[in-house]
Amino acid sequence: MHYQLNTTNYHNFATFAVNKLPPRSYFIPYPDRAAADAVTPKQKRYSSPKVQCLNGRWDFKFYPRPAELPTQLDTDAVAFDQIDVPSCWQFRGYDRPFYVNIRYQFPYKPPVIPTTGKAGRVFSWLGCDTGVRLQWKDPGEEYNFVGVYRRFLNIDNAHKRQIISFLGVASCMDLYVNGAFVGYSEGAHNTAEFDLTGKLHNGQNELVVVVHRWCNGTYLEDQDMFRNNGIFRDVLLRTEEPSDLWDMDAKTEKTADGYTLTLTAQTLGDTDVTFTLQGHGLTRTSTAHAEHGTAQAVFTALDVTEWNAEAPTLYDIYFETATGCVKEKIGFRTVEIKGDVFLLNGRKLKLKGVNHHDTDAANGYTMSPDDIERDLLVCKQFNIDTVRTSHYPPDPLLLELADELGIYLVDENDLETHGTFAMQIPPTYNSISNDPKWESHYLDRIQRLYQRDKIHGNTSVIMWSLGNEAGGYHNTDAMYDYLKLHSALPVHYESAIHCKRQAYDVGSEMYPSVKMVHDVGEKCRKQARLNDRPYFMCEYAHAMGVGPGNTEAYWQEIYSYDSLMGGCVWEMVDHAVLHKDGSYTYGGDHGEWEHDRNFCVDGLFYPDRSPSTGAQLIRFIYRPIRVRHIDGEQFEVFNTTAFSVGRYQLTFRWNDGSETVLTPQTAPLTKETVTVPLGKAVDGLQAVTVTATDLTDSRVVSEEQLVLAQEVSAAPAVTALPAEATVENGRLVCRCGGKVAVTGAEESTLLYRAPTDNDVDAMFHNLMAPYTHQTEEVVFSGKTANGWKIITKLRNKCGSYTVTDTYQGTERGVLVTSMLHRVSGGREVPRFGKCFRLDAAFDAVHYLGRCGESYCDMKDQFPIRAVDCTVADMVEPNLRPQESGNRTDCTVAAVSDGKTRVVFEAVGHPFELGIKPYTDRELLAMKHREDETRTGTYVTVQAFQQGIGTGACGPGVMPEYRYKLDSDYTLQFLVRIEDEPAR
Questions:
Q1: E strand map for 655-750
Q2: CA–CA separation, 955 and 550 (whole Å)
Q3: What pairs with residue 138 in β-bridges?
């Protein structure tokens, strides 16, 4: 079939929609109520006889050179491949995955984009791959690629009204049917609908969609994610009768005598509409005749149970006509701001949130219903009650499931112009957002967000968000005004901080320091509009690599001030590309001419949704019940929820085996004192683990340990060094049966660590690099009365140091005493530890200490307990290998080959423990999981290791978690070799 293709829509600034239907609520009609009742939200769009899902195999032709796409397209002459819809073509072998954060993939000349020629030279001054410097890059063979999709439709009811709905297409689409142009759309994450009535005929019909890599709208979609293309969400064909619904709305309002519910239907013709509210013993029904296409019912004085995320009570609403039924669920709740306090149902709310992208390592933007449900269930499992839909409207199913499961949503517009900051001098966020020429483009996007999701503005959606990192303010003001005309919900937009507007209904900021948050609570920030309204950290605690460190400090502030609403961790899931061999790649691994490396690997969860330590940390920090020891048998219980009383049973288990169970009746966001009998110390440790169980579903929601006392034995009396322990080349060597069991590693003293992602600051400086240039020189080695004394000179780019080691015999093993002294230069080091090498056969690990990865600014998520594991379990599977697996508060550690155990025992103070299957020096060169080749077993016993912080995007390590060399540090511990006990 022949088509005259449009060649201008995608780059004609005046055109962002052609023949696209007005926005409306997302809903799926069924023939009758029984059919509508029979399906779950996940099944709804796939089971209706009134809606045909067009997912599946489509013909596909990729044009890597857009000039090769003929303007006169004869589809019969095209050698089509096939591709699955929905999908992203970069994840199906066309073009390549391409990750970039704040830059565009083409020259910044808004609204101009490349058409059929090369992208051309690109200027920028900021990027992870290049650092901070003025630069021009030639992308080479980069074009505005085009994908042509084709599908055949068999229709037997062409006389009826036919509406096609595309739930997501990037970047834009021209739609054709049976040789004729139908319409154009841009706005990748907004629904695009077209009327095909009269354009289809009974029998086989040909549907063609032309998708360009970039369009004018791409300037508004510069989000931090892999830049993908294609028909990435479901495609639906709706068959509509004259008496069917076109649109629907529901609005709730709380009055003195209960709630009022107003249901409105827009119909395709004048017809009767029956409105029903039903649930929890309540039924209200009203029938109205649609006049001029609108019918309405108002139900007043409703005695209903209010919805909140802790108890998500929903009611059914039905919109019925002679030919169809639409069933939705709705909650009754209020959202208001009083002064500087954000209230839901009149209660103060602390939002325990995360930012959620649509991301799948095998499918890019495409997520199945099961994927979407899984992500929200993971949120509930990890005490996350709020999702910001960064940075675009999600699949509408996510909103339905959030209503049902109980998740607060910050529903965000598909808008980000971050490249305006990185690709022009002087940098500013405001270039496009303050340009009135773009106002209609902005309004189109916010209208489509609101109209699609408006029903959920009664339930899970508690704030609208104008977008992300696009500055202001002319066009953002216009969007704000539109929302305030249609909705009573508060409006969020963090990037207002970059223009004179500063804030809309809530103050918002990304990655503030704890001090900045404190000053908001104290109302002394210089940005006045952060002080006089609720304050929301839309992004904080950047979860890249190991971390985020020091997160608890934010929540101490949040709980101290009513105006502080909480925040959303950046972000939920690592973005990566999964390969057939099970490996993952990130930015720069695919030949991208510009990229931001592994800055996309910044989630609490790995791509397969398995939790990192960061996820366990956030689950702990977001716990609904907190317990603090006051004195004696007195404990403080803090209910951090907004609505739950008596819901959580607390079990106090002491390490001596004693146990107390109670169910506190603490009011929301208040504290009370309870009495709990104390347990006895065991092996110097007096500690209680408090487990909170949700009585509504018997789920354990948190576990926290309170350590009342931890005593560590002093050094035993010194005796002669046993013959099995010698010093060779300045290193301790311990033998067993004549064979070397353990020896000091080649780098026996570690003052550095392989940099975590958070050891690279916002200006791309590797803060650990000066320390990794470490050299060691033994300047003295000699015997003493009871052993050996070794003096080693260490140098790095920060300073010069001496380490004095003594090895002495005792009845419990070799006593190692190591003293670090600064000679000159830097007054702090990130780490001080002694490293030992064992053969790889020593793989079984036993230790007593924090039972998971822990550092001094992120350790309370894991109790102190005995752990048995392998060496591989002692490091974390970060997609980019880095320092990981540290364990704090350790008193003993042992590594065994099944016959012999090498034991490290604390003296005087607990130590920090690191066990790796490779050296820290080898770790420095690793880029991916596959690089982690085992070369032995390396045990590092440390006096300290500095905290983690969130320096990759946010504050670095706080002073209280850094180690100054104002005086000498001494590390002392015992090493012994013993036979493995028989089992």
A1: 659-662, 671-675, 685-694, 699-710, 718-719, 725-728, 731-736, 739-750
A2: 9
A3: none
**Domain span including residue 148:** 2-240
**Number of helices followed by number of strands (H, E) in the chain:** 12, 63
Which helix (H) or strand (E) covers residue 782, if one does?
Answer: strand 775-784
The pLDDT of residue 641 is above 80: yes
Which residue of the set 240, 241, 412, 539 is catalytic? 539
Q: How far is CA 100 from CA 422, 725, 758, in A?
A: 12, 54, 19
Q: Which stretch of 353-362, 633-642, 738-747, 857-866 has the lowest confidence by average pLDDT?
A: 738-747
Which two structure tokens, joined as six digits, stand for 232? 């990435």
| CB-based contact 143:189 (threshold 8 Å) | no
Contacts of 740 (CB under 8 A, 6+ apart): 733, 734
As a whole number, mean pLDDT of residues 424-445 equals 97
Q: Is residue 329 part of a domain?
A: no
Decide if 539 is catalytic. Answer: yes
Question: What's the pLDDT band for 983 if we cut at 50, 70, 90?
Answer: low
The alpha carbon of 434 is separated from its chain's Cα centroid by a whole number of angstroms, namely 30
CA distance 269 to 290: 8
Q: What would the two tokens of residue 434 be?
A: 């303050």
CA 454 to chain centre: 25
Secondary element (H or E) of residue 397 = helix 396-405
> How confident is the model at residue 795, as a pLDDT?
96
Structure tokens, 844: 């079984």
HEC states along 582-614? CCEECCCCCCCCCCCHHHHCCCCECCCCCECHH
CA distances (Å), origin 611, targets 351, 381, 866: 21, 11, 22
Instruction: Tell whether 722 and 705 lie within a shared domain.
Output: no
Quick one: CA dihedral 372, 373, 377, 383, positive or negative? positive
Dist CA 470 CA 222 (whole Å): 9
Q: Which of 469, 557, 594, 905 is catalytic?
A: 469
Look at the chain and report how many structural domains it folds into: 5
Of 248, 357, 348, nearest in space to 308 by CA: 348
777 is catalytic: no
> Which CATH number characterizes residue 660's domain?
2.60.40.10
610 within some domain: yes
Over the Cα atoms of the chain, what is R_g? 31
Q: Which residues does 403 contact at the CB level (< 8 Å), separation at least 6?
A: 307, 312, 314, 329, 330, 331, 456, 459, 460
399 Cβ neighbours under 8 A, 6+ residues apart:
409, 411, 453, 456, 460, 461
pLDDT range class, residue 184, cuts 50, 70, 90:
very high
Per residue in 839-867, pLDDT tens?
Answer: 999 999 999 999 999 999 999 999 999 99
Residues 307 and 391 in one domain: no
For residue 583, count CB atoms less than 10 angstroms from its CB and return exposed for 0-12, middle for 13-18, buried for 19 or more. middle
How many CB atoms sit inside 10 A of residue 339's CB? 10
* 762: CATH: 2.70.98.10
Q: Are 309 and 403 in the same domain?
A: no
For 19-27, what is the mean pLDDT?
98
- Over the stretch 32-77, which tens digit does the pLDDT of each residue have? 999 999 999 999 999 999 999 999 999 999 999 999 999 999 999 9
How many Å apart are CA 878 and CA 282, to the nearest integer? 51
